[in-house]
Structure formats: structure tokens, C-alpha cells
Amino acid sequence: MRVIERGSGSPRVAVVGGIHGDEPAGERIVEQLVEEVRVADERIEGTVQLVVANERALAVGERYTEVDLNRTFPGDVESDTYETALAARLTTVLEGADAILALHTSHSVPPPFAIYSDLTESVRKTVTGMPVEYVVDAGNLRDTTLDSTLPHTVSLEAGRQGSEEAVDFGLEAARAFLRAHGVLHDEEPSFRETPVVTVDEEVPKGGGEPAVYYRNFEEIPKGEVFARDDVYTHRVTSEGMVPVLASEDGYDDIFGLYGRFTGTLEPHFHSGT
Fold first, then answer.
1. With 60 as the cut, is the pLDDT of residue 271 above it?
2. CB 267 within 8 A of CB 242
3. pLDDT at 272 over 50
4. Residue 152 in contact with residue 124, Cβ under 8 Å?
5. CA 21 – CA 49 distance, rounded (Å)
6. pLDDT tens across 96-144, in order?
7. Positive or negative CA dihedral for 261, 262, 266, 267?
């Protein structure tokens, strides 16, 4: 794990890349921010933590070396398993931060979107301050991800894994995140309403040739098939269902997630971050 800090005092905000070693966009974005924040030091208020998390997995280009880092938080510093111990170290580094942005990419199709598990005012500010079209509420899905473990954390799915577009968008969104929380003053922050999709169900994958018929956030008509392979045919049985992280090849065990539009985040904040 590599940690670079700039500035001093409060608020303390963090940008984390490289949680998964086969998503190098996050590391590239963090490295670019290191240079930009160095140049802008006199315009920084508070502390910026820039973190490259899973250097060992990045070095070999694999999602993880032993276990998925983003399925093992808060971790165990005494563990002999590399990612389990790393999760505990990363948790210690980030604990108490006022806002955290975790950078990801996927094999899923655009548009980029944000994910949160606990809607704090800091999370509201992060989401509505970034140029994302949607945000996913995953609070009922898992409790071992970074955003479900540390308060004020938002994960960003910046785009397609391996694409330059994901790097460009992720960098734009990370800059907007730093502006939104008042630590970077190169230009005024901008806030917008953001539609919310709540997810609570994984769509399992079996084996054989997979096929996915609907894109992220595209409503699947009742009775239509979302995805199938040689084991499963997933036919939607209720109105209003939309897929999230929909992909034929992105995951070994799931086609993605089922969700529903459940509201809109408005950019209203209490005092402080």
C-alpha cells in the first residue's frame, strides 16, 4: 500500500485506487492527482490522502492475490492472508476521514455511476458533487466492502475496465470530489440531483455461454429475460426492475444485480463536510 498526504488540518479526504489489481485506472488517477495536488498545494485546505491500495495485485494484473480485498473489510491485521491483513491496514489509514472516494472500473457498460451503503451528509455531498448520472444504494447487499465498512465512503464505477475513457472520467470525478469537500479550489464546485437505484439481489450465473439482454439502468419489462446461460434463465416477474453491473464476462458467479429506482439525492447539506 502506498499513501501520499498533502496539506494539513481538516477536512481530511481520501481518494483510493487499486483496490482490485486488474483495474489499473485507479492507480493512474491517483498518480495524476499526486502531481496535480503537489502543484496546487497553496490552494488546498485540509488534508488529502491519496492511496494506491493493492500494489501486489496491481503488479500481476489480477483482481486479487489470495482473496478479494473489497469482500474482506474490515480485515484482520493478524491474518496470514495478504488481502485480509491489507484490509485492516487500509481501514486504519482511512479511519476517521471526513470523505472517502474509492475508484473502480468494471466490464459493465456505461454510464459511470456511484455506490454508497450509508447515506451521510458527506456521502450526499460526494455523490451530488460528481458528474455521475446515477447512484446505487447497496446498503442491503453486502457488509464487507470499503463503502459498507467506513463511514462517508462512496465507490465510483468510472467506466469500462482497461479503457482510457474510464481514466479520464475517474480523474474528472475525483477532482470534482475534492472541490465538493472544499479542499481543492481550482474552480467552484457544482452540485446536481442524482437518481437513486436501490439494489438488494445478485443475479446468479451458472455455466456455459452467457448472454445479457439489457444495459445498466435500462428498465426490464415484466416477463422479459434479463440474462441466461446453460444453467439459468432470468425472467423478470415484476415491474420496474433495472440491472446494475450487468455483464456477460465481468464476474464468474453473477450477471450483475437487480435494482429499482427509489428516489433522488438532492444537494442539500448541513454545516461541515
1. no
2. no
3. no
4. no
5. 20
6. 999 999 999 999 878 999 999 999 999 999 999 999 999 999 999 989 9
7. negative
CA 85 to chain centre: 21
SS3 label, residue 42 = helix
Could you report the per-residue pLDDT of 216-267, keeping only the tens digit for each? 999 999 999 999 999 999 999 999 999 999 999 888 899 999 999 999 999 9
261: burial class by Cβ within 10 Å (0-12, 13-18, 19+)?
middle
Taking the domain 2-180, which CATH number applies? Answer: 3.40.630.10
AA letter at 236: V
Give the Cβ contact number of residue 19 at 10 Å: 29
Nearest to 158 by CA among 172, 138, 144: 172
pTM of the model: 0.95
Helix 121-129 vs helix 164-180: crossing angle, to nearest 10: 130
With contact defined as beta carbons under 8 Å apart, do 71 and 145 qualify? yes
Nearest to 192 by CA among 100, 130, 137: 130
Domain spans in the chain, listed from the N-terminal domain onward: 2-180, 201-257
